[in-house]
From TrEMBL:
Keywords: FAD, Flavoprotein, Oxidoreductase. Belongs to the FAD-dependent glycerol-3-phosphate dehydrogenase family. One of its GO terms (biological process) is glycerol-3-phosphate catabolic process. Its EC number is 1.1.5.3. GO terms for cellular component: glycerol-3-phosphate dehydrogenase (FAD) complex. This is Glycerol-3-phosphate dehydrogenase. InterPro entries: DAO_C (IPR031656), DAO_C_sf (IPR038299), FAD-dep_OxRdtase (IPR006076), FAD/NAD-bd_sf (IPR036188), G3P_DH_FAD-dep (IPR000447). Residues 8-364 form the FAD dependent oxidoreductase domain. SUPFAM superfamilies: FAD-linked reductases, C-terminal domain, FAD/NAD(P)-binding domain. It catalyses: a quinone + sn-glycerol 3-phosphate = dihydroxyacetone phosphate + a quinol. It comes from Acuticoccus sediminis. The lineage of its organism: Bacteria, Pseudomonadati, Pseudomonadota, Alphaproteobacteria, Hyphomicrobiales. Residues 385-492 form the Alpha-glycerophosphate oxidase C-terminal domain. Its cofactor is FAD. It is an enzyme of class 1 (oxidoreductase).
Amino acid sequence: MDQHDTFDILVIGGGINGCGIARDMIGRGYSVMLAEKVDFASGTSSWSTKLIHGGLRYLEHYEFRLVREALIEREVLWAMAPHIIRPLRFVLPHHEGLRPTWMLRLGLFAYDHLGGRKLLPPTRTLDLAHDEAGAPLKPEFVKGFEYSDCWVDDARFVVLNARDAADRGAVIRTRTEVTEARPDGDAWRVTLRGADGATRELRARCLVNAAGPWVDHVLGETFGRNDAHNVRLVQGSHIVVKKLYDHDKAYIFQNADGRIIFAIPYEGAFTLIGTTDRDFEGDPRDAKITDEEVGYLVEAASEYFRTPVEREDIVWTYSGVRPLFDDGASKAQEATRDYVLRTEGGHGKPALLNVFGGKLTTYRRLAESAAERIATMIGAKGGSWTARAPLPGGEMPISVAQSFANRLCSTYPWLDPSLAARLSRLYGVRAQDILRGAESADDLGRSFGAGLTEREVRHLVDTEWAITAEDILWRRTKLGLFVTKDEASALDSYLKDVTGHAAHAA
């Protein structure tokens, strides 16, 4: 090994926490490598409800620190990535017999005032009998409340953190597994295995175990620990149905069991409904929605919507496993959503930081906390910086982001407005990297369906580590909801030729 095989920090895991930590640390001046076993956001981070939110229901569990931190972060993250994050109004119908009106008002008052809201509009009371938000609901829901949070393209959020880390000098590797880590003086000697089975060794002064639901597995298999029992795995499932209503607001519904579910406009043509909470055992990659969960979500939504949600309306389902810190809560829904960081070593010994729990909304603050912990173990370098640094594509004011598609159409008059809107939502100002030099739609190359062109595919392969059709159709985009099986197969074959990887269409 030479100096190029030695890093200050090796991050294990390419979810939101791992990529966020890699980005933060490289920006402080540390040398950083990140290794992800499969693809970015291939675990928990892409199976979320896709919200940047304070977590209104966490107030019931007295998680005031978490809620306040998350509320503050909403507008910070919106400014960082205004192309993939957008404000969303949530309608909370009052259900007689569940939480009383005074409790809802108190919670929403706290929600409005805990987080220093500046840009997002405040809570207001709704007369659902005379408001468009009441039209899709059963007539008995006559009163409600409306408050603000944000929506995010979760998987792209992860990829953009990785892209920014790489742009700043981090070494980023997907399809790369950390198979062994053993002490070697003041550092770790680490073995990595690529998709082709080839191995390499390197040294790292600090390892960050950000493997999400596999964090205990990494401690056991990679470090040889048998004392790892820190994570509570909780499965959350969602259903995607045909669009249930025409306006652009989301709903938050209370259920008789004390839980809540969301119904959210999704990808223009659908409504996303979720989530469930159930304890999970086994390999998180095997998580699949159960018939019981489908029934729960369908029935919970049908309690509120005027037109019942039927199983036949479902076009897609997904399930993910949340790696919550095991705080001993009796019910899955009551387990803390806050993050916990645990360190060991440093000061002349190999340093290790384990990441438990966390949310999309608080990932940046988690990364800052991780950086502070790491600095105490291996020495401090730069200070915090990410709050004012846009993610790739987000280098524009929020006001510009909302009309950027129009700018693309002005620059490229031949561009279909729907494609301009999608490209601006996914890539922000970097959409111009895909379109630059094109004088007609034909210049974008082969079409793979649903507006996906060869230019965009090559951009994703060259700059965003996309290898398989699944990477592109379900994580870099959500075009998997729109393409046919034949189109997905054609993309699969094309990628196999381009990347030399045995890709498999989703």
